[in-house]
Design brief:
Elements (H helix, E strand, L loop, with lengths): L1 H6 L10 H12 L5 H20 L10 H5 L1 H4 L17 H38 L4 H17 L3 E6 L2 E4 L1 H8 L3 H11 L1 H7 L1 E2 L10 E2 L2 E2 L9 H20 L3 H5 L20 E3 L2 E2 L15 E2 L4 E3 L1 H13 L9 H5 L14 H22 L18 H10 L5 H9 L11 H4 L8 H24 L4 E2 L3 H10 L10 H5 L1 H8 L5 E5 L4 E5 L28 E4 H18 L4 H24 L9
Parallel strand pairs: 1-3
Antiparallel strand pairs: 1-2, 4-5, 6-9, 7-8, 10-13, 11-12, 12-13
Helix pairs in contact: 6-8, 6-11, 6-13, 7-9, 8-9, 11-13, 11-15, 11-16, 19-20, 19-22, 23-24
Amino acid sequence: MAHWLDNRGIHSLAQADGAALHEYGEHVRDSGVGRGRVVKRLGFVTRMWAFDQLSARPAGIARPPWDERGIDDYLPSEKGGGGENSREPLATETMGPLLIWAMRMVDDFADDILAAWDETRRLIEAARTTAASPAGKAALAAYLTPVIEAGAPVPAVWNGGELRFARSYVGGLTGASARQVDTAIWRYGLTAAAGLRPGPCPLDVPVTGRVAGAPWRTAVDFTEAAALMRHLGTAYFIVCAYLTGMRPEEVLGMRSGCCPDPLPDENGETGRHLIRSVHYKTATDDEGNYLAGGTERDVPWVAITPVVNAIRVLERMVPAGRLLFDHDAHDALYGARPSTRGALRAQSMRQRIEDFAAWANTEAEAQGLRGEVIPPDPLGNIGTARFRRTLAWHIARRPGGLVALAIQYSHIRTTLNTEVSGGYGTRSRGGIHDVLALETALATAETAADLHEQFETGSGVSGPSARRALVEAATGRRFEGREIKTDFARKYAAARRYLARDGAVLYDNPHALLLCLYKADRALCQREGIGLDAPTLDRCVPGCGNTVHTDGHAAALRERADLIDKRAAHTPQPIGDRLRANADKLRAYADEHDRTRFTRQEIPA
């Protein structure tokens, strides 16, 4: 950069004004290097300018234009970056039943599967180590005689692609030695009989899990215990990955004891469960060197009850202090010796998830639960990294969701311009704010489309911003079914420009039962002197000039008022009086809507 400036007669940073830096930015952009390298080189200049602002003797370099306009607006659009924020969320039709089956495994089937696995390992070990004895021989004969004489189904397992006699199951069950069982197999032709008349190998463990009020199995089979254990571990991963927002490597990096039960405070109240574990992105030491093994996250993840339940069962599967997804614990079948240390790999988990979905669909058909079949996602395999993106999709659409998402994902929006927060504190592709901008834009466009549809079908609207909102809803981006133009859904710059239209973006606030056509200078939810680019939906103020009500809101206001009156009837008088006053206020809002509402038929076309 110094050579480039010097060749143009610019001999000090004080002479590097915005125009000169713009020319330099175009020079770097058009130099033929990759986009990532261009971003990195321009970032060096941005940090130099930022440092100059803090210097006791500033050189006077101008603010780079790409910092003002945003690097993604300054440079050509990125081509298929493949980062986590470019992934599409899982379709609701896929994620819903997938989560149902994962939580069913954790909450309902876990005890049965763990007991069946313990019994399976006991039978295998007994069959391997039991010495020959007359008692074992007699027990084996007593078990096989009625099967052979009656031509009944023979206990069978798949081995090498063929049905074979379940020698470990029968040996462990009867107490016969391996040699005694092999002799019986040869004498009675049990290998051929197993191929002709394969029978089950029920385990003697109680079945407590239920589906739709009925036991999910009459008995867990010896042949399926290992597969069920594999699916159980996969279910834990799905629950933890989706309901925390962790990255795949962060879930796989959890250890036993990472989520202790919270201790009661001085008032005897207990707080939330928190997961203290490692993260890998931006994990560096004091000298800025990347730590491949990760480092403990400064802000712990919040764990809700299903996640806590999953962790507790995982802690039963692994030794204390070990990784919850330890390879040896989750892949050690039939007593195999440990071969690979560390956690399961994300690549392996991707295949496990597809296998789990296939098993769940088979189980849904067998249980008569057609409505819980997991359909294929229209955008491809489920994978491991799309859970985080899917959770963000849902949270960002709730009032206060951006705050909750920022806290849980540890990406707090800030105005700092340092090396780390510069990526997260702006709406650039480098941070979670790409997700926030995109999901917020989609949600607001969906709100506008819904308002337009309601108004066109005869619903009444009212409020200071009602007419402006109808104009925006009629002229803004329109949905076709559930989707809008592909380029809008994929280009974060378009989402940012969409949200930056002051006075033209319509937000839904189901908690306050209103719509907000946000305009910063008339928003009562904003503190004086602070002009944010989005409303603070958890601080809606009645009478704000940005509000819009529909007939649906008026009905919901009266319904909420009725519920408050019912509560008031069962509370002490001072509290009851306040509740009734609140209910009257809600009805007054609904009455005001009825007096001032207008419909499509009441205005000129």
